Amino acid sequence: MNRLLGLVISVPAILVVITVHEYFHGYVAYRLGDSTAKFAGRLTLNPVKHIDLFGFIAFLLLGFGWAKPVPVNPYNFRNLKQGMLYTSLAGPLSNFLFAIPLGIVLRLFPQLLQNNVLMPIGLLLGFGLFYSLILCAFNLIPIPPLDGSKVLFSLLPPRYAHIEYWLERYGFMLLIGLIFFDRITGIPILWGWIGPFVNIFTRLFAGTPVSIAFGLGF
Fold this sequence. Notes:
This protein is an all-alpha fold.
């Protein structure tokens, strides 16, 4: 696949998957009693409201990135820990569920990736599938500020509060360090989790591994 074509087609796919991710964070929080995202104008499917410039560039350059976090006030939840758990899971879960119909369409209509005329549509669906699964897997990593850390903190007993404190303090630096370590050394610490996750579910949903279907192997 032409790299420039892939880059152009990946842009709308990235915008859609980050919008789905952040919208459902805000929607679930709203349903659980917190209107912070709504009042901040983030309970919307307008991708402009959710773009983080550096996170978007990271998607294009590194293959994974992030959006602007939806503001949440956990003290508005009727049950604080349960509210944070459900709200945090909503983003990755929405991406996972969004990937399923995209994969099914590609499985049922393989000509979308074989016919030159239809290929742009197939690639758009493929990148949507690809980045949905990446965003899901990446955000499940239990390191702040990723959603997985909030899930972890919601489940940790109070006696492990020191773990939460340490991760909140050093988690972002740890995450950035792991990203650069992956890229510089080629040792797949983050990609050792993200890559197999994406390939397994791409094969399950679309019937073909992502490296073959979209030329995006790890």
